[in-house]
Request: fold
Amino acid sequence: MNNTSNTAPIVAENLSRHFGEVKAVDGINLTVNQGEIFGFLGPNGAGKSTVVRILTTLLRPTSGTARVAGFDVVKQADQVRRNIGVALQDAAIDPLMSGYELLELQAVLYGIAANKMKQRANELLERVGLTAAADRRVSTYSGGMRRRLDLALSLVHQPAVLFLDEPTTGLDPMSRLTLWEEVRRLNSEGTTVMLTTQYLEEADQLADRIAIIDHGHIVREGKPSDLKRSVGDPTLLINVSRQQMDQAKVVLSAFGDMRPTAEGTLGVGLKGGAERVAEVVRALDEAKVVVEHLELNQPSLDDVFADATGYRLEGADNAPQAG
Ligand SMILES: Nc1ncnc2c1ncn2[C@@H]1O[C@H](COP(=O)(O)OP(=O)(O)OP(=O)(O)O)[C@@H](O)[C@H]1O
Ligand SMILES: [Mg+2]
Reply:
């Protein structure tokens, strides 16, 4: 993966942006490869939007460099802009205009020929499921409709690289899933996507690779599955009758270190992972322990986050469940 880094669609080197005393972004290095969905995960104030604003030429870095679509974000800002689509977290759109009008305006801004504009606007409205609402004022749109329109607006000029800053924050689970599907579809058609999120589940489900950002620093980076595996062995939880607890504990502790669990449940960090579950079951059986319930819990991205930062990501409870 690293051998493609020079030509990768997004490369940031030692990027920093300070606001007075505040080191919003503090020396980050980042490579997003062609065709990836890259998730930038972090809590409020971590520096996500600041990075996005630098990469999309809206803000100059204090130091460091970044190239997007092969162009320098400071020295070649125009070329960068022509190759990217952006849906910002705080995009200001005129609520009195209709979805169709806003798309037409965007097409004008990107120099799309007048005879192509109508077709393009209608295609995009169709694509994000807003055809029926095309002529309604945006002030009447729901949150989910607004985010879908933001996405359509960012796609007018068919960008190779797409930036989405918290595209699903505040959306209900259904709207969130719809947006995920659309992002996956765009990605499968070849668009490289960088999105920021505060939702663990979103990073886990949607992103090929993620970076965890905290206080302007990238504290972990990799595939969600690799990051989770790196935190440690999965926890095997079992429930047995009260009388057999001690016996079960003796059996389990041969398979790894015992872990703290809720009262009445035994947990062991299972060395070797899922492949060894059958072996544990056999050992319990041989010891005549009757297992009432058994489950294997893989480490979650929340565990990865906690391991990296020393605290749990707030709002994780609001994260949507996988469809
Ligand atoms: N224009 C600015 N002037 C001063 N400080 C700023 C400015 N923009 C951002 N900051 C500060 O930089 C830090 C990072 O902000 P940023 O908006 O990048 O965070 P974020 O990860 O996008 O957070 P959120 O999830 O809330 O959107 C914060 O402490 C913020 O207050
Ligand atoms: Mg932000």
